[in-house]
TrEMBL record:
UniProt biased composition (Polar residues): 1-16
Chain residue ranges for the region called Disordered: 1-20
Protein name (database record): IDEAL domain-containing protein
InterPro entries per UniProt: IDEAL_dom, Virus_scaffolding_prot_C
Domain of life: Bacteria
Signal peptide: none
Matching Pfam families: IDEAL
Organism: Kurthia zopfii
IDEAL domain span: 35-71
Amino acid sequence: MEYRYSQQNSPNNEHPLSQGLHGQELLNDIYIDLFLKQLLADQQIGLLRAAIDDALDKRDEEAFLRHTESLIEFQQSLEE
């Protein structure tokens, strides 16, 4: 009995459905990464705004300026 090599069975010649699933997984990973980055950025902005509000309530000009500068720098870093 003779066995012949078939390109269809080659590991480099994946089934188109398999390639599509791999691409979808990669796309999902990218979306999850972007979502988590946005979530963390929103949380950081919220914390800085709360610190600014607290500084205003305490009439702490130094803390207000420090937190405001941090917020501005952080928001600018997100735009880059």
